[in-house]
Design goal:
alpha/beta; Rossmann fold; six-stranded parallel beta sheet; 10 helices
Length: 208
């Protein structure tokens, strides 16, 4: 299987690459943020994308959503330190097929790739049954009111970017960036940046 790695920490990527190459997998490329990961996946069409959940510009959850919509072939595995319910359920809702805790990567990641590659879903053993049950009862979860672009703008604002910064990074006009920010605040009925950050953390878009 051909695999793409995405993590904003070079040492983590190097460690994961060494682990997977020893297991006989072909590493098709590496990315250091979510935007670069999407470009790389589109270019090489790997079987598996192993993605860190906490990446700048576009986090792992949003990258997984975009990969699911843009590549029928590629399945996504999130590699993360978070075992909280909101992260796992958001990941499953985003179409992630594997959820591996970084603390267990040395023992779990190869098995996760093998299972996800064969069409199964893999969760690290430390993920509680309660989390899975919460996902199975996902009809009780409110739908996400934001569009993918609004979620991306929300993450970038939460990371401390100004509206002008958001516009520059996304290649859109400042007016359009302001429109996205105003619309998401209106949808969420949130009117201050600190509250936006708290919402983004609860939704798994930002790491606390």
């Amino acid at each position: 299987m051909r695999i793409v790695l995405a993590d904003d920490h070079a040492l983590v990527r190097q460690g994961v690459r060494a682990l997977l190459e020893r297991a006989g997998f072909d590493i098709a490329g590496e990315a250091c943020d979510g935007q670069e990961a999407l470009t790389l996946v589109a270019a090489v069409q790997p079987d598996i994308a192993v993605i860190d959940i906490g990446m700048p510009l576009l986090n792992g959850l949003e990258a997984a959503r975009a990969i699911r919509g843009g590549s029928q072939k590629t399945r996504t595995i999130l590699l993360t330190r978070h075992d909280e319910v909101q992260y796992v359920t958001q990941a499953l809702r985003a179409g992630v097929k594997g959820y591996v805790l970084k603390s267990q990567a040395a023992t779990d990641l190869v098995q996760a790739i093998q299972q996800v590659g064969s069409g199964k879903i893999y969760l690290s053993p430390n993920i509680s049954r309660a989390v899975v049950e919460a996902y199975l009862n996902k009809s009780d979860l409110p739908p996400d009111p934001l569009t993918p672009r609004e979620r991306q703008v929300l993450q970038m604002v939460g990371e401390g970017n100004s509206t002008k910064d958001v516009a520059r990074i996304l290649g859109i006009s400042t007016k359009t960036a302001e429109s996205h920010r105003a619309r998401l605040m209106r949808k969420l009925d949130i009117h201050e940046t600190a509250s936006l950050v708290r919402y983004a953390i609860r939704q798994g878009l930002l790491e606390p």
